[in-house]
Design a protein that fits this description.
With about 280 residues, the chain is α+β, with helices and mostly antiparallel strands. The chain folds into 3 domains: about 160 residues, no CATH class; about 35 residues; about 60 residues, no CATH class. It is built from 9 helices and 8 strands. Helix 2 links the parallel strand 1 and strand 2. The longest helix has 24 residues.
Amino acid sequence: MVGRDTFLKRHFYYIFTPQLTYGEDPFFLRFLDQMHEIFIMDVHKNQQIYLEDPDPKVPKPKSEKSRKPTKLKAQTDPIRVDKWASQQPAEAWQRRYARDTTKGKLLVDILHKRVWLWDGKEHKALCWHLVIRREVGASKIKYSLSNAHEETSLERFVYMQAQRYWIERSFQDAKTHCGLGDYQAKKWRSWHHHMAMVMMAMLFMLEERLFYKGSYPLLSCSDIVSILCYFLPNRAIMPKKFLGRWRFGIKEGKLQSKQRIEISLEKNWSLRLANVTK
């Protein structure tokens, strides 16, 4: 698919590859690099890296009578990414802002270094970026590799790495609220039809969230589904009556944290639902 889109001159800003490949099959990453596509990929903690160019060469025979070597050999020793990270001093970690959450800003500590990777067969090692992320107050560490340009800033890597949350969240919303996984298809056409309907529903909720972004930045897909499930079967119900029942059904702390219900929401939803249900 990537090769086809590249042939059609469709541009990817960058490609995020989560734990689907997870470093076990480097062919896909080398393919992306050859296609000049920028990516960032999560890898296991036992990923082998070289801190210096291994400069692979075929070693010389030990003697004139011995068999001539044919396999390439690295001139430096590799090291695991977790072992290298444990050797770094505390001041080497740099704190950066990753993204907003319902509890405030998410801050992470980052380690960054240019490293080399070699699969044991290539005639030249690849020089990529190693990005190690640790959330503040947490012990879990995430390791990633990227072939981005050498001048790429640390803030850019933090942003690219943080996009995995939004990818997974979109699938979670689609499965929970739009029935992404609720299908029993026997042929590809029916599966494509189901996926198209799910995407249309997700597009509608995205447009609603963008419409209310200024007033209600934390409006969720669950909120929109709750409102539609109540209004569509009961079009004669006034918004004020519904919102009163909704207030009663949601905990006070959740209302205060998400800032969902205001008088303006009643007016806007009344007008927009009137257009949708015509």
